[in-house]
Design goal:
The protein is of the alpha+beta class and 236 residues long. The protein contains two helices and 17 strands. Strands 5, 6, 9, 13, 14 and 15 form a six-stranded antiparallel β-sheet that branches. Strands 10-11-12 form a three-stranded antiparallel β-sheet, with no helix packed on it. The longest helix has 37 residues. About 2% of the residues have low confidence.
């Protein structure tokens, strides 16, 4: 019985982690460029107790790098990436990488994302559009033109998926060296989240029920052990 409550507790802890991840995925279903997280579990044999007893040893999270669908817009600074890769943006913590390409111009003409972070160029600095420019366009290679004149190219990078560390809903950091090649830029489009809401809701219900069942199991083990303790400690 003692091993049973630990098995149930380990399972409940892992299901709680899965519940958090699933809920976060659903909450970001409308977030541009968001990549869903997936949780996997490892089982370990509790051979010291029983040859048939297994418990959840732990859980791990990985980003689902499947591309989201492209949504067409009328804004030439709405940018999507075809193929694996990231835009580079300047943050207070240093350079970060993102698939969220909803860019615009700030008051000084710098190209910024929805969070106000500046898009970086191949040269490492921010890209700034001259104030007198009336038309901005971006090519498939990320080169930016203002009234037909090139003002630089967006920094585009590819990394091994396992090298990326998630920071918030749409930013990633890495210390790894970039891979060869760059993604294709599509101007006038945004990459939607790759979260399947229907699948997410099904997963949420399934994980919630499993979690609740494990909590009931734990409570059942506690009640059984309490009764056994009372019976053993009663009058002979």
């Amino acid at each position: 019985m003692g091993s049973g409550i630990y098995i149930a507790a380990a399972g409940a802890e892992s299901q709680a982690a899965a519940l958090d991840v699933t809920a976060n995925n659903i909450a970001n279903a409308a977030t541009t460029g968001f990549k869903a997280e997936r949780v996997s579990f490892r089982q370990a044999l509790d051979s010291a107790q029983s040859a048939d007893a297994t418990y959840v040893e732990g859980s791990s999270k990985a980003d689902d790098q499947t591309a989201g669908s492209l949504v067409q817009t009328s804004n030439p600074l709405d940018l999507a990436l075809v193929g694996d890769g990231y835009f580079s943006v300047e943050t207070d913590a240093g350079t970060r990488y993102t698939r969220a390409g909803a860019f615009r111009l700030d008051a000084a003409g710098a190209i910024i994302n929805a969070a106000g972070q500046k898009a970086l160029s191949n040269g490492g600095g921010p890209l700034t559009v001259p104030p007198e420019a009336s038309q901005v366009s971006v090519t498939a290679t990320g080169e930016v033109f203002a009234d037909g004149e090139s003002i630089g190219s967006l920094a585009l990078s590819r990394f091994s998926p396992g090298a990326m560390k998630r920071e918030g809903a749409s930013l990633f950091s890495t210390t790894a060296a970039p891979l060869d090649g760059t993604p294709e830029v599509v101007s006038g489009a945004l990459e939607s989240s790759n979260v399947n809401v229907v699948r997410g809701m099904v997963d949420l219900v399934k994980v919630s029920r499993t979690y609740e069942s494990l909590l009931r199991m734990i409570e059942g083990y506690r009640e059984t052990e309490s009764r056994a303790a009372r019976d053993l400690g009663g009058p002979k």
